[in-house]
Design brief:
The chain has 14 helices and two strands. Helices cover 67% and strands 3% of the residues.
Length: 316
């Protein structure tokens, strides 16, 4: 009499459960947390107190010159800020500068990254020269562009007086759009090298064998670019665009130096400076700082979700 052995029953995998980590992977994770924890704790101690203090101050009507008359007003500072037309003018200028500079820098940075990636002989020298504008202090760069476009000391008007509407005494900082043009131009000149450096790191991760296989199959350069190179650079593009967008959204130096926020060119950071430093309105300035912080968090969340990039894919 023979017996039939039933196959061993296995429980179905839990829905949504990821792959089980090996002992080595878990050990690497623990080591990573141990190495990162000191820096994480220091950053938390340095940043948590100012953020919480700003949130707390935003609930009070509080002037630095009259600290005794401190009154709790709840969300009134946020209501006043969001209902003020000056705030929305600053928001419009900030968003406009951010969108223009990031788009142009992404295109120019990718072109420069391609050149630096393809060139062979003077590669290190070329990378060093490209990074010179980014190494210049922003204040020095801002004053340089200001002097270049001044009507009396600048030389740009003499070089561009052949353009219709531009004369030797044309005031670039006398109205909104010319001021925005110069501000964006100075930002693009200075920070495009940063964008190109991040994109160059992404280009280095693209497998050249995939490009060669696409060319053998008859793909044009444009098809190789959009079907092979850019998809494999998605993580690098996301990091570059995210970092640069967050930096551009907090622009202050160039606007403060060139226009001082005149002609509707003030940014959110400049508005915070005006409320907190010039008018010593700590409550309103803190509320604007919290609003700017929330905007930065929203931008980061939108980019991370929009690109849908798993930054752990390159872990191996």
């Amino acid at each position: 009499m023979s017996t039939v052995t039933e196959p061993a029953r296995t429980d179905p995998p839990t829905k949504g459960a990821g792959p089980r980590l090996s002992d080595r992977s878990r050990a690497e994770q623990r080591l990573g947390w141990k190495l990162a924890m000191p820096a994480f704790v220091v950053m938390l101690l340095v940043t948590a107190y100012p953020i919480l203090q700003a949130v707390w101050n935003s609930f009070f009507a509080y002037r630095l010159t009259d600290p005794e008359n401190r009154e709790f007003v709840g969300l009134n500072n946020y209501v006043v800020s969001l209902s003020d037309g000056v705030f929305w003018d600053a928001m419009k200028a900030t968003v406009l500068i951010t969108v223009i500079t990031v788009i142009v820098e992404l295109i120019l940075g990718f072109i420069i990254a391609l050149v630096m990636h393809r060139i062979v002989l003077p590669r290190r020298t070329l990378r060093t020269v490209v990074l010179i504008p980014y190494s210049i202090i922003t204040v020095v760069s801002g004053f340089t562009w200001l002097f270049m476009y001044q009507t009396d000391t600048g030389f740009v008007n003499r070089w561009t007086n052949w353009i219709p509407g531009v004369a030797d005494n044309y005031d670039w900082f006398g109205s909104f759009w010319p001021s925005i043009f110069v501000i964006c131009l100075s930002e693009i000149w200075k920070t495009t090298p940063f964008m190109s450096l991040l994109l160059l790191a992404g280009l280095a991760q693209v497998d050249t064998s995939m490009e060669e296989a696409a060319k053998v199959d008859g793909a044009s350069w444009t098809q190789v670019l959009f079907k092979v190179i850019l998809p494999n650079m998605k993580a690098a593009i996301m990091v570059a665009v995210l970092f640069r967008t967050l930096d551009a959204f907090r622009i202050f130096d160039n606007i403060f130096i060139m226009t001082g926020g005149a002609n509707g060119t003030n940014s959110l950071s400049g508005l915070i400076y005006r409320q907190t430093i010039d008018r010593t309105e700590i409550g309103l300035g803190s509320a604007l700082s919290v609003i700017l912080f929330v905007c930065v968090l929203i931008i980061a969340a939108v980019f991370v979700r929009g690109f849908r990039v798993d930054l752990t894919q390159g872990r191996s």
